[in-house]
Amino acid sequence: MKHYTRREWLKTASAGCAGMAFLTTPITGLAQALGSGPVRVLVGMGAGGATDSIARLYGQKLLDQLGTAVVIENKPGAFQMQAINSVKDAAANGRILYMGTGSSLSLFPAIRKDVTYDPMKDFSFIALTGISSAVITVNAALPVKTLQELVEYSAKNPGMVNYGSAGIGSANHIKTEYLKLASGLKAEHIPYKSDTDILIQVASGTVHLCITTIQSAMPFIKDGRVRALAVTAPKALSYLPGIPGTEEVGIKGLEAIEPYSYFGLVGPKGMPDALIQELNSAINKVTAVPEVQTRMRDTFYTEPFTGTPDEFKTMNQREIERARELGARLKLDL
């Protein structure tokens, strides 16, 4: 399986942001193309999570670029299918967009049999906004301090260790199964409905471990309710100092866990190329604003990205292929 390092991912971000000029007035042609009334950005999850928060940040800042209001609409449920179907069925005029995630744009289409859309055919790729790593946590009372110790503990206590996920086929389910395959970890799966649900159960001791977004886990880590063992990035991250990355834990073959997720705006298929390019320019300019980069990193624990629509589309195709290889290795029947 071809692995693209975080450095290769971040090269796109640094190159794009470094050369971006800040713009505070609307792009005239874009404002005319969009017409009157708000632009709707659909989010396939509930309010308050990372995807929703990033969508709202961009919605606020895009007002200056588009010259029109941006309304965020939450359509949770059915693995984001309510939001996805609404975008698929929309007119290709840029008035309805979707804040896609790594799960909905690559992982689910590659692995789940019940997915009825093809992101490479059904969407117009506009702009990647950021990628995020996850953190592997355990109950604070579990007698392990490192990922290697966790693997050894599970071997010495067969059938006694479990892990939680946000549901069968979710990102943390699939990524934890890969962790088990690569490391030899022995753990039984207990599905829940959200990252917060899992973390509450890990903190209580009902569940022993989980892989979740850093944004969800950080309050539990800070107050000592759970212990962080590793992040899914290859190296330690500045906002979790002292917590090793997958290249630093002494276990080989963990690279396919990263990227844990990513975020990007797509629209219905068939959007005019000129409209896609202008929306991409507007979104990239928002990403380049220092306040946005600070919030992405310090609040959402996500690395901001800029790039072209073609780069986003090519990257997504690459991630679909990697996810298919991962699914074949795991032999999951989803």
UniProtKB/TrEMBL annotation:
Keyword check for Ion transport: no
Pfam families (alphabetical): TctC (PF03401)
Top-level lineage group: Bacteria
InterPro entries named in the record: BUG (IPR005064), Bug_dom1 (IPR042100), TAT_signal (IPR006311)
Keyword terms, alphabetized: Receptor
Family statement: Belongs to the UPF0065 (bug) family.
Protein name: Putative Bug-like extracytoplasmic solute binding receptor, TTT family
